[in-house]
Specification:
Shape of chain A: globular
Largest sheet of chain A: 4 strands, parallel
Helix content of chain A: 25-40%
Number of strands of chain A: 10
Strand order of the largest sheet of chain A: 1-8-2-7
Strand content of chain A: 15-25%
Oligomer: homodimer
Largest interface: A-B, 29 and 29 residues
Radius of gyration of chain A: 16 Å
């Protein structure tokens, strides 16, 4: 076991340049709901997921690849796209062997920021694939940055909770000189292992936004560990099974 | 009691432009140690405290005003200045009726950012003046931003803890749609009212930096409520007793 590797938590994309992204392993975290849906779709056999920034690029790349257009803007299916950002829209019977071209508000943007800054390795994480992400982090030899996608650069609870869940499981393998990481872990412990109940008890802003859309089932899924326990690995512009 | 007023917590100066600073009441929080020392010096009768950005400006303004030069860089007395950033350097016998010209790494910078963005009202807060800050926030009619000075833009635990302490006391007077605020409050509750013991149990980075300088007494003071329970109010370039 090495403790020379560092782990940092970046609570907002607006803070990314405070961290040494170059050559690091970056975990993109967008719990509600992009990275939960990515885990679900790959778990259910999607050939790959292509994350894109804009609706127009989503439509263009889907036309080129024969993929499915999907994405949200402000928590709803984006105009011009066919599917949304719910993990339940992608059961095996529908998504197996298909390409999903996904544009989301926050997660895709952070992924591209990590890429531009020379991250050696990019994976996505959320509660449905918590175990697989932790196993990969421990097995890797790289320094780690847990990158919270946040909400329009504002820190959010769900992404921070996931960072805390990861840290609580892998911390003995890293040197962690990072208050954001310690805060995330304290927050996770305060949730006492039940992030859904914790979020219900809180006035968490995006949680309530989605609850207002009738998405309680989605939220439960996104906050429950290991329901789609695979590793989405970014390679050549696509997320594939790692 | 009005609940139409909003309260937001800005965890890092790098995030300040996500918030509506104009016309707001901004609390500058730099617990270890700038805003604790500001509270202590004003409590002990300092005529005023002039916060400045740079060492050269500190020297220049002190010469003009007959003030005392003080400040830290990376937790130590800055070269060219006479005093440091410890609350214990400013007992009444020394500081009464004097002007303190103070430059610090993070707090002064955030104060000037709030000023440039048109804050209606700027005060400084730390545990030694927790009660006075809360009373002022409740009595004010303005929207509130709790501004954490952080450490070179990286989120820190001590400033976030103080934000949480404030929120736990004043929240019924505000509409709080801000995950950073809810996280701060959860963190504060996790500390169970004893922030010094909590920080000891954590690998909080600035805490350990200062402990390494032998500053345990300072840290205890800075994390203990109401030891210098006055309100530093920024007016015409100076912090004075509010």
């Amino acid at each position: 076991m090495s403790t020379n590797r560092t782990l940092y938590t970046c609570l907002s994309p607006a803070l990314i340049d405070l961290y040494e992204v170059k050559d690091a392993l970056v975990v993109i975290i967008d719990v509600l709901r992009a990275t939960s849906t990515i885990a679900a779709a790959l778990y259910n056999g999607a050939a790959s997921i292509i994350p894109v920034d804009s609706i127009s690029e989503c439509v263009r790349i889907a036309a080129e690849t024969g993929g499915i257009t999907a994405g949200e803007r402000d928590g709803k299916v984006a105009e011009g796209l066919t599917y949304g950002n719910s993990p339940f829209e992608y059961p095996r019977a529908f998504i197996e062997n298909k390409i999903l071209v996904l544009t989301t508000t926050n997660g895709t943007r952070l992924l591209h920021m990590a890429l531009e800054r020379g991250a050696a390795d990019i994976v996505t994480g959320s509660f449905p694939n918590l175990g697989a992400v932790c196993d990969y982090l421990v097995a890797s030899e790289k320094n780690v940055i847990l990158g919270c996608a946040a909400w329009k650069d504002k820190v959010n609870q769900e992404d921070t909770l996931f960072a805390g869940a990861v840290i609580s499981r892998v911390k003995q393998h890293f040197s962690i000189n990072c208050d954001a990481s310690h805060m995330a872990e304290t927050l996770y412990h305060a949730a006492e292992g039940d992030c859904f109940t914790y979020m219900q008890s809180q006035q968490a802003s995006h949680y309530h936004r989605l609850m207002g859309f009738g998405l309680e089932g989605d939220i439960r899924y996104c906050l429950t560990p290991d329901g789609a326990n695979i590793l989405p690995l970014y390679k050549d512009g696509k997320l594939i099974l790692g």
